[in-house]
């Protein structure tokens, strides 16, 4: 890109207040482990992941095995998709800065051993992927390394095994403290081993294997498992159909052409990185606050028949939200913690695919919401004012506002007496709104936190949503 053009874009981004422009120091560091080619969904997730490549510092893309692909790895498929990304990277850079060069990502493609699970863990079992992971964790960088695990985590298990075998206990603790894992269930026997032997490791997972029905109960199935793994109602199934994907993804340039038709469901691995997207909704360090990648709570789950072995320590695992579905009914499930955001996340993906082929003026860009206060202290019975007057849109589009209480993310236990409506907010669809801190239908002590979510949606095509979270500390 010509230097003067890039300077203009960066200045425009700063002046227009893009909500998703992420400074380097704020980007999460990420190394993806993927059993790509076991079925189409990993390739699908990788295409989406790369449309957000400017949101992450990508330390590695590692081809691995899983229970579904035990004796081979497919780094060539990662390279194929990254090469397609390289063809559209410059066009994406016109819309938001910070996309890494395709050559940079190609140099970070690695692979694990072509063996199953714990067969790849132990003396002499190092691989280019496990060594890359160790180097990434050891890098002189204050940010933790996020490891989205789309298949089996044996590469991570080997890295941890080697560190434990070659370093002092204190050094091992420091290494483990720098890791964040989000695994898509248990796709080999190394995941349960990791959780048992490294009890301090930050680990998000719905434990269990597919053979015993584990995927059916997994939170991640909420991305698109309405009629397959999850088999749930309430979400808009048209947004995850092959027809929608054909129109909004596959027809859009070289990267879209790499997006296959799904075999079982769309993108089962995608939730593992969605809470890392800088959309104003999620805090990656607080899975219990929820976001596009779902909501999880920290506890030791009881043994289920689909578990490989009993869990012996607290992990970030399944939690439930109560959400009004497109069928007009309320649904209380862990799947709903993801599908409640489906319209926004799919529109966002469609817009980013537009960025791969369209000039800036012909595409839509997300709004930049603003709130007067992100943290408020209030007492029971007190009126709380909410103000989003500083919200803007880079394309000059009209904006819609929606204030809501994310009841499950907070700690104050209250109810308005209506299903799914713990709080009545006056002016919930306006820039300015207010509510009264509940004093009735509140469990003792009537204190705690309330999470108020502002969703600002523009009127461009497709309509894009960004968020702000206001936390109200209710005190005596």
Overview in brief:
The chain has 476 residues and is α/β, with parallel strands linked by helices. The protein contains 14 helices and 16 strands.
Describe the overall structure:
- The protein starts with a helix and ends with a strand.
- The chain is globular, with a radius of gyration of 22 Å.
- Strand 1, helix 2 and strand 2 (57-63) form a beta-alpha-beta unit.
- It is α/β, with parallel strands linked by helices and 476 residues long.
- 27% of the residues lie in helices and 18% in strands.
| Beta-strand content | 15-25%
Mean pLDDT: 94
Overall, the morphology is globular
**CA radius of gyration:** 22 Å
Total of DSSP H or I helical runs spanning 4+ residues: 14
Q: Tell me which oligomeric state these chains represent.
A: single chain
Order of helices and strands, N to C?
Answer: HEHEHHEHEHHEHEHHHHEEEEHHEEEEEE
The amount of helix comes to: 25-40%
Low-confidence stretches: 1-21
Structural class by helix and strand composition:
alpha/beta
Q: Tally of extended strands? A: 16
**Major sheet, described briefly?**
6 strands, parallel
User: What spatial order of strands do you see in the largest sheet?
Assistant: 3-2-1-4-5-6
N-to-C span: 57 Å
């Amino acid at each position: 890109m010509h230097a003067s053009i890039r300077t203009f874009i960066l200045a425009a981004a700063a002046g227009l207040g893009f909500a998703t422009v992420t400074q380097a120091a704020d980007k999460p560091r990420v190394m993806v482990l993927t059993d790509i080619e076991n079925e189409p969904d990993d390739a699908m997730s990788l295409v989406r992941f790369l449309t957000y490549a400017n949101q992450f510092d990508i330390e590695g893309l590692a081809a691995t095995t899983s229970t579904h692909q035990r004796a081979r790895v497919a780094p060539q498929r990662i390279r194929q998709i990254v090469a397609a990304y390289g063809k559209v990277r410059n066009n994406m850079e016109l819309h938001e800065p910070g996309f890494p060069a395709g050559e940079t990502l190609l140099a970070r493609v690695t692979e694990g051993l072509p063996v199953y699970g714990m067969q790849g863990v132990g003396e002499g079992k190092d691989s280019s992927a496990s060594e890359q992971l160790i180097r990434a964790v050891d890098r002189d960088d204050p940010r933790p390394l996020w490891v989205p695990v789309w298949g089996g985590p044996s590469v991570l298990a080997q890295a941890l095994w080697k560190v434990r075998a070659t370093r002092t206990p204190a050094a091992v603790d420091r290494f483990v403290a720098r890791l964040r894992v989000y695994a898509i269930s248990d796709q080999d026997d190394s995941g349960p081993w990791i959780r048992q032997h490294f009890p301090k490791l930050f680990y998000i997972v719905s434990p269990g294997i597919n053979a015993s029905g584990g995927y059916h109960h997994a939170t991640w199935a909420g991305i698109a498992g309405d009629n397959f793994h999850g088999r749930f109602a309430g979400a808009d199934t048209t947004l995850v159909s092959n027809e929608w994907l054909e129109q909004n993804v596959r027809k859009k340039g070289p990267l879209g052409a790499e997006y296959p038709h799904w075999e079982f469901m769309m993108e089962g691995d995608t939730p593992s990185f969605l809470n890392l997207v800088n959309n104003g909704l999620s805090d990656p360090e607080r899975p219990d606050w929820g976001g596009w990648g779902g909501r999880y709570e920290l506890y030791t789950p009881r043994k289920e028949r689909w578990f490989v072995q009993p869990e012996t320590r607290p992990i970030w695992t399944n939690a439930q939200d109560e959400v009004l579905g497109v069928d007009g009914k309320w649904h209380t499930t862990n799947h709903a913690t993801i599908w409640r955001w489906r319209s926004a996340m799919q529109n966002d993906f469609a817009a980013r695919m537009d960025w791969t082929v369209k000039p800036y003026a012909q595409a839509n860009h997300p709004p930049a919401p603003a709130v007067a206060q992100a943290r408020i202290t209030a007492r029971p019975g007190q009126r709380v004012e909410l103000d989003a007057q500083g919200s803007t849109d880079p394309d000059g589009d009209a904006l819609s506002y929606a204030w809501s209480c994310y009841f499950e993310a907070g700690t104050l236990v209250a109810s308005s007496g209506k299903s799914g409506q713990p709080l009545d907010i006056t002016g919930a669809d306006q820039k300015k709104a207010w509510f009264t801190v509940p004093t009735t239908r509140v469990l003792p002590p009537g204190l705690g936190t309330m999470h108020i979510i502002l969703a600002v949606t523009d009127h461009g095509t497709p309509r894009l949503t960004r968020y702000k979270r206001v936390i109200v500390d209710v005190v005596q």
